[in-house]
Specification:
- It is a single chain.
- This protein has ten helices and ten strands.
- By secondary structure, the chain is an alpha/beta fold.
- β7, α5 and β8 form a beta-alpha-beta unit.
- Bound molecules: adenosine-5'-diphosphate and magnesium ion.
């Protein structure tokens, strides 16, 4: 069998806490093909960012691992660039210099100064920010900052672009514009993208595949959905498309109807806990009555 491009193989993670280890992820298992656009969706706190941070090499999996082109990756590297929700630009550098910083790090010794300059300009043009190269981060809008963050990521020519709710902080119109730009660029460059989102429409609009995560603790992949819609995708036309609405409904149903079923283990833990508490309550009943009277 051919190797998958990016494999997330039986990943589990335990975080040390004051009350002992907390199992955030358990047996998270899926793979991504080269050039594929994959979204990871799930309720807040289920472990989406943790999965992304493990792929980025920023967190170490306690069990399992991440394999990129047949090699295990467990440290950060320029082959996996991350775009965060907040742009994280250096406030003292111009738009141009923010992108140049990454380019110099990755291409030092490979590209000449002139080549690096035109590469930075090319990537700023891709995100439609070449007109504002000399501006400082405080002089541009949130959407523009996010575009610069994406340019910085693209300019490092990563094998995988990891995006953690990159449009989350933007108003609806800016978000739509930026989603369209990212889809255009992804199609042009055939970049492999992993996008974290909690927005159902965004996931269906942008993805080839949607990874739906169950609620934590011990979150895992609940369902996988292949989105077979032609590209380029146009949001207004798709809103009337039966297939689009079917996919949308599948994701909504997973998030709002099935989560209890998928989340069987933690539901059991919860009910065990409640049962225990009930038993404890009935043992303490007499004491409580006395305490109540005293107060
Ligand atoms: N460094 C950490 N230490 C302890 N717990 C963490 C850490 N990072 C995340 N968690 C816990 O793991 C769970 C998943 O978090 P996260 O991946 O940020 O969720 P999401 O991105 O889906 O909202 C949460 O319960 C969170 O509190
Ligand atoms: Mg998150």
């Amino acid at each position: 069998m051919a190797n998958k491009f990016l494999e997330i193989s039986k990943v589990g993670i335990e975080f040390p806490t004051a009350n002992g280890p907390f199992t955030a992820l358990k047996d998270v298992d899926f793979s991504i093909n080269e050039g594929e656009f994959v979204s990871i969706i799930g309720h807040s706190g289920c472990g989406k960012s943790t999965v992304l941070n493990i792929i980025a090499g920023l967190y170490q999996a306690t069990y399992g691992g991440v394999i990129l082109e047949g090699k295990e990756v467990n440290a950060p590297g320029p082959d996996r660039a991350v775009v965060f929700q907040s742009h994280a630009l250096m406030p003292w550098l111009t738009v141009y210099d923010n992108v140049a910083l990454g380019v110099e790090k990755v291409f030092k010794g490979q590209k000449t100064k002139a080549e690096m300059k035109s590469w930075v300009e090319h990537n700023l043009a891709l995100v439609k920010m070449d007109h504002a190269m000399r501006k400082m981060p405080h002089e541009i809008s949130g959407g523009m900052k996010q575009r610069v963050g994406i340019a910085r990521c693209l300019a490092m020519q990563p094998k995988v672009m990891l995006m953690d709710e990159p449009f989350g902080a933007l108003d609806a119109l800016t978000r739509a514009n930026l989603q369209d730009s990212v889809m255009e660029i992804q199609k042009e460059l055939n970049t492999t993208v992993v996008l974290i989102t909690h927005d159902v429409d965004e996931a269906v609009l942008m993805s080839d595949k949607i990874v739906m995560m169950s609620n934590g603790p011990a979150a895992k992949v609940g369902e996988l959905l292949e989105v077979d819609l032609p590209r380029p995708r146009e949001r207004v036309a798709l809103s009337k498309n039966e297939q689009f609405n079917y996919y949308r409904q599948q994701v909504l149903s997973f998030l709002y109807e099935k989560k209890g079923v998928v989340d069987f283990n933690s539901a059991k833990q919860q009910s065990d806990k409640q049962l225990k508490a009930k038993q404890q309550d009935s043992n303490n009943d007499g004491d409580e009555t006395i305490a109540d009277k005293a107060s």
